[in-house]
Amino acid sequence: MEKLHEVSGLRPALKLDVTADEVKLIVLDRNKEARGYRWRDGIIESAVTDVQYLGQTIFWPTDVALDNIQLIFDNAALLGTSSSGQTLQVVEYRPGQVLMSVTTTPESDTIFFDRDGSVFRSLNITSVTDIRDGIDAVTRGTSRVYSVGFNDRLGYWAELPVGDDTTERRARMGNRPTFVSQRTGTPPLEPFDPDLIDPAILAQTISSHDSGQGCAVEIDNRFNRVQPVVTYQCDGETFHSDLQGRDLTSQLR
Prior knowledge:
- By secondary structure, the chain is α+β, with helices and mostly antiparallel strands.
- It has helices spanning 2-7, 69-79, 128-139, 199-209, and strands at residues 13-18, 22-28, 34-40, 43-47, 86-94, 97-104, 111-113, 147-151, 155-161, 166-172, 179-184, 215-220, 229-234, 237-241.
- A hairpin with a 5-residue loop joins strand 2 (22-28) and strand 3.
């Protein structure tokens, strides 16, 4: 990779494709044009590309964890792709976020990795670690959210204010990276700091009420209290608690 990057002029990259046989690097030149370079059979040469620079996030290809590319391919095959025809792609997944993904030909499930080689695994909704990681995935970088929630069907999600009249929704489902969308308007809820949420308390409350059917959890200020209230739906039963786990169900009926 270092030699290919050197031949490209040590320019920042827009896209990187790696297969068992070749490496193709698309870089951004001084004129803001995309230029392609390919390594195959020990030979580096220019390559045709249809990639255009439209303001997407650039990255340094030498920062991508490709020291053990076979391990990444093996993990992807284990998690859902075929073990043949694999392509590792590094490119902007959403504004500001560059990720790795492994796809196959013929097409199978896409497996996503962070640039350090760690896989985006499916998160459950019962363990402290997964609840913590799920909430962090949808609230990272913000200190104000309207609501945070998770359930077995939708995974983890949060809604937060962006500007004066825009709401951003972040969702982390299955083994996919966080997806972000925005809409005009704001909900009638007072924002709160997601750092107030204790995953250990949520997990403990879930374990004491869940009989195996799973729980849906939503945290917001719909009851206009000093702090947000946690609403649980477990096995057809709805109940509420404060952020310290104290039951509020009888007070809020």
